[in-house]
# Entry
Amino acid sequence: MKVASYDIVFQEIPNEVTLALNISQCPCHCPKCHSPHLSEDIGETLTEDLLFGLLERYGAGITCICIMGGDAFPKEVNYWLWRIRTLGKKAAWYSGKDKKADEVEIRNVDFLKIGSYKEELGALKQPTTNQRLYRIRHTFRSAEAPQDTPLEEHTWEDITSSFWK
Ligand code: SF4
# Structure
């Protein structure tokens, strides 16, 4: 899984300062794609060295790291989301598919965008969009909770409308 480019962004994830990693080899081929170069095999392989280098350069203010794409590599996306959370950052994934890949465990995700790009409906900032951004809330069973309480629960909160205000 390769990083074609990266940015520090403020709007893609509400209320977070986000290091966005733009992943190449996108398999989605959405008509009128806004970033057609991302379907190519370009960029630098995502490694610990690359991630730590970026965090060293920009880390202090970053609260969230977002994997933008990577739909061709869901197992790797899952690993990196997990790794990001171990670093104390929120983990976000912008998928270009209409459904979350099974390989990506929701327990590793703090923010999830799903939905293919459809030019006629627009992206997240358009109220007509088919895309959705979810905040995933995680709760874990406390030691005092009854034994029939689930060990962990993950609630999907649709926060797409925060882009329209
Ligand atoms: S998911 Fe994004 S980068 Fe991939 S084809 Fe669709 S619009 Fe382009």
